[in-house]
């Protein structure tokens, strides 16, 4: 694609941000953002513009195309949210008079954020009125922050970008299921937090998959499937990691014996604990503890 940009119409706004070296390696940050009014002549075609793009269409119709990892070519319209990988060739524009908000963002975890959002929700999301209003408010907050004479701290600006990329519950995105099935799955996703909370409060005790599935009121099989889809690991793996995190804290923060730590963190025996600990960390609990004690602190 050759660069080909038509200017937006009157009353459009554009703001640029130059992040500090600290912000580049610490936060998500805006590269530039704006609020545009345009007609059917408006078009942007680039080979690349090193960032990721989010657009919220307020009025009108247009199109978007990306040749990135999540390649797509789609018509876009009112109350739709668009996500594009602008590290790859891309193009977007208007088919009629169109109003939209947009932000090019980047940062230390921007690529991972983009991949997560497009994997779960897709590249073009159709919003309800209330969801569109949520995103509209977040875009306006960012525009106000960059247009203010008072300036804004980079950590707070990073918070605003992260908040913009934190999608509200109820979005069904790219899932190809019926409305009732999507609503039920969204409910289960929210309910999974109860199961994680149960683990956090009872990990030192014996926990069965039936206990966890009961927190969500589904069968154990369905619970395992939903949990792995949401967290990327099984409930057993999550619970084991939680117990080992606790064990690492005690190994480096007190004088409990390895056996005492094993049982206080929910393991059924010292041997089971030592095997699991070495498998995850590559060292025995005793060696892990001594690794801290042999360092000179001052």
UniProtKB/TrEMBL annotation:
<keyword id="KW-0805">Transcription regulation</keyword>
<dbReference type="Pfam" id="PF12833">
    <property type="entry name" value="HTH_18"/>
</dbReference>
<protein>
    <submittedName>
        <fullName>HTH-type transcriptional activator RhaS</fullName>
    </submittedName>
</protein>
<keyword id="KW-0238">DNA-binding</keyword>
<dbReference type="InterPro" id="IPR037923">
    <property type="entry name" value="HTH-like"/>
</dbReference>
<keyword id="KW-0804">Transcription</keyword>
<feature type="domain" description="HTH araC/xylS-type">
    <location>
        <begin position="193"/>
        <end position="291"/>
    </location>
</feature>
<dbReference type="InterPro" id="IPR009057">
    <property type="entry name" value="Homeodomain-like_sf"/>
</dbReference>
<dbReference type="GO" id="GO:0003700">
    <property type="term" value="F:DNA-binding transcription factor activity"/>
</dbReference>
<dbReference type="InterPro" id="IPR018062">
    <property type="entry name" value="HTH_AraC-typ_CS"/>
</dbReference>
<dbReference type="InterPro" id="IPR003313">
    <property type="entry name" value="AraC-bd"/>
</dbReference>
<dbReference type="InterPro" id="IPR018060">
    <property type="entry name" value="HTH_AraC"/>
</dbReference>
<keyword id="KW-0010">Activator</keyword>
<dbReference type="InterPro" id="IPR020449">
    <property type="entry name" value="Tscrpt_reg_AraC-type_HTH"/>
</dbReference>
<dbReference type="Pfam" id="PF02311">
    <property type="entry name" value="AraC_binding"/>
</dbReference>
<dbReference type="InterPro" id="IPR050204">
    <property type="entry name" value="AraC_XylS_family_regulators"/>
</dbReference>
<dbReference type="GO" id="GO:0043565">
    <property type="term" value="F:sequence-specific DNA binding"/>
</dbReference>
């Amino acid at each position: 694609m050759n660069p080909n940009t038509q200017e937006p119409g009157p009353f459009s706004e554009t703001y640029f941000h130059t992040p500090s070296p600290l912000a580049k390696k610490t936060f998500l940050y805006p590269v530039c953002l704006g609020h545009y009014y345009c007609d059917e002549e408006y078009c942007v075609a680039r080979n690349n513009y090193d960032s990721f793009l989010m657009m919220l269409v307020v009025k009108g119709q247009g199109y978007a195309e990306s040749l990135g990892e999540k390649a797509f070519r789609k018509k876009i319209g009112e109350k739709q949210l668009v996500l594009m990988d602008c590290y790859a060739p891309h193009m977007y524009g208007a088919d009629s008079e169109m109003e939209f908000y947009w932000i090019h963002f980047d940062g230390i975890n921007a690529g991972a954020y983009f991949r997560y959002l497009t994997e779960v929700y897709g590249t073009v999301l159709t919003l309800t009125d209330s969801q569109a209003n949520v995103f509209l408010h977040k875009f306006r907050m960012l525009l106000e922050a960059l247009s203010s004479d008072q300036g804004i701290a980079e950590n707070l600006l990073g918070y605003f970008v992260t908040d913009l990329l934190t999608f509200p519950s109820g979005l069904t995105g790219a899932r190809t299921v019926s409305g009732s099935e999507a609503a039920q799955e969204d409910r289960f996703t929210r309910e999974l937090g109860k199961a994680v909370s149960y683990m956090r409060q009872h990990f030192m005790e014996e926990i069965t998959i039936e206990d966890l599935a009961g927190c969500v009121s589904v069968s154990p099989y369905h619970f395992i499937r939903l949990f792995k889809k949401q967290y990327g690991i099984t409930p057993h793996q999550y619970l084991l990691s939680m117990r080992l995190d606790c064990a690492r804290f005690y190994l480096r923060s007190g004088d409990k014996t390895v056996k005492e730590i094993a049982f206080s963190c929910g393991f059924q025996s010292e041997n089971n604990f030592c095997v699991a600990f070495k498998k995850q960390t590559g060292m025995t609990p005793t060696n892990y503890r001594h690794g801290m004690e042999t360092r000179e602190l001052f």
